[in-house]
């Protein structure tokens, strides 16, 4: 993992294909079908009785989707994985599998805004209470856990990039008999494998680094087969947010280069974060690698971080001046992106993430893509200069 040029640990990403597949193709086919027919009555009966496992309908099992699920399970060190049509379908189906009306869950502060809104709307409607805690404060987490049904983690967190000691939080959850779930989209399994740190279930917005090319919206959850089976059988069939074969195929293609891309994002983003930290117009840079050390288990950093300007910057001029950094939500693709904090803070859609956790109006979130460090740095420096009030 430390050698920047050896990706042997991830060799299975390259070799993963549909074994026994037609024509010995290195790229698996897209099994673009809604249903699968039975050869005769006996096969159909055996399948319905659960005596035979085979695809029936693509909302359940599809061979192309299964290849993606197997790849991700191997990467995360999981027994099983389940693909979804979006990260939010993954989050909602996973959490809803394990809560009942009257339950309470714990979530870290600064959790991804739509996860927060899901907790504050649908869970609230189901009479499920949510206690938000600062994941850096293990005493506060320990105090919130007794009696909770599950703890929902995200590390590093959205916007402020707080990195938590995931292993310590998972151990606390286990001690209190609380199921732990983590959103690992930011680090990807290349830089953090939460199941090896004791977390029960790991999930991703596969729309981010797993896909890596901003051409797919998808999600996936991985963990022990018994827990994945509960999601597979209790919520996925009825909420119906299954990953499509074509999107799975795009993810299989994207994941072949995941380790290479992650290391390129890491190097470029860290260099830009360091230069921003030294820039006279910048107050603070929120990037986990700028702290003294990364928490145990986080072995690298991705391309997403934020920073806060000193007063005296015109964010509108700054954003409009950028050439390579495009204004846009999401991240994890090849392209560099920017989201200004004043726009997020002004968002009206209730419940407000900014009101709940605070978003500094002088902050900016960057996704550092693969355009090249010097091109991106020149872009930022020119835009800061144009936007600085003289
Ligand atoms: C950290 C994080 N988790 C989950 C999601 C939701 O994923 P999706 O957009 O694929 O539903 C996002 C999307 O931006 C995200 O940033």
Automatic annotation (TrEMBL):
Q: Which cofactor does it need?
A: pyridoxal 5'-phosphate
Which GO terms fall under molecular function for this chain's record? carbon-sulfur lyase activity; pyridoxal phosphate binding
User: Which InterPro entries does the record associate with it?
Assistant: Cys/Met-Metab_PyrdxlP-dep_enz, PyrdxlP-dep_Trfase, PyrdxlP-dep_Trfase_major, PyrdxlP-dep_Trfase_small
Q: Could you tell me the Gene Ontology terms of the biological process aspect for this record?
A: transsulfuration
Similarity comment text for this entry: Belongs to the trans-sulfuration enzymes family.
Q: What is this protein called?
A: Cystathionine beta-lyase/cystathionine gamma-synthase
UniProt entry keywords in alphabetical sequence: Lyase, Pyridoxal phosphate
């Amino acid at each position: 993992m430390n050698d920047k040029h050896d990706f042997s640990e991830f060799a299975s990403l390259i070799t993963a294909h549909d074994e026994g597949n037609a024509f010995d193709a290195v790229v698996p086919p897209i099994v673009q079908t809604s249903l699968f027919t039975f050869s005769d009555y006996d096969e159909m009966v055996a399948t319905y009785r659960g005596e035979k496992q085979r695809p029936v309908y693509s909302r359940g099992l599809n061979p192309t989707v299964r290849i993606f699920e197997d790849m991700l399970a191997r990467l995360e060190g999981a027994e099983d994985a389940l693909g979804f049509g979006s990260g939010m379908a993954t989050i909602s189906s996973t959490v809803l599998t394990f809560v009942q009306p009257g339950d309470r869950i714990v979530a870290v502060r600064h959790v991804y805004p739509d996860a927060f809104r899901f907790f504050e709307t649908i869970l609230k409607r189901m009479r499920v209470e949510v206690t938000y805690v600062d994941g850096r404060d293990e005493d506060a987490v320990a105090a919130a856990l007794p009696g909770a049904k599950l703890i929902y983690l995200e590390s590093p967190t959205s916007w402020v990039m707080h990195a938590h000691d995931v292993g310590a939080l998972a151990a606390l959850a286990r001690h209190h008999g609380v199921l732990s779930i983590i959103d690992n989209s930011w680090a990807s399994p290349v830089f953090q494998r939460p199941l090896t740190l004791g977390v029960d279930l790991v999930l991703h917005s596969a729309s981010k680094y797993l896909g890596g090319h901003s051409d797919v919206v998808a999600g996936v959850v991985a963990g022990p087969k018994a827990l994945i089976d509960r999601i597979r059988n209790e919520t996925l069939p009825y909420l119906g947010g299954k990953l499509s074969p074509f999107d799975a195929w795009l993810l299989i293609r994207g994941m072949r280069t995941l380790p290479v891309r992650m290391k390129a994002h890491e190097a470029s983003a860290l260099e830009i974060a360091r230069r921003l930290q030294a820039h006279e117009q910048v107050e603070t840079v929120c990037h986990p690698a700028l702290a003294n050390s990364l928490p145990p288990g986080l072995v690298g950093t991705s391309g997403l971080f934020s920073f806060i300007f000193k007063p005296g910057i015109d964010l509108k001029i700054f954003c409009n001046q950028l050439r390579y950094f495009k204004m846009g939500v999401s991240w994890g693709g090849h392209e560099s992106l920017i989201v200004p904090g004043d726009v997020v803070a002004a968002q009206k859609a209730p419940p407000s993430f900014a009101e709940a956790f605070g978003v500094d109006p002088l902050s900016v979130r960057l996704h550092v893509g693969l355009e090249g460090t010097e091109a991106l740095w020149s872009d930022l420096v020119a835009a800061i200069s144009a936007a600085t009030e003289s």
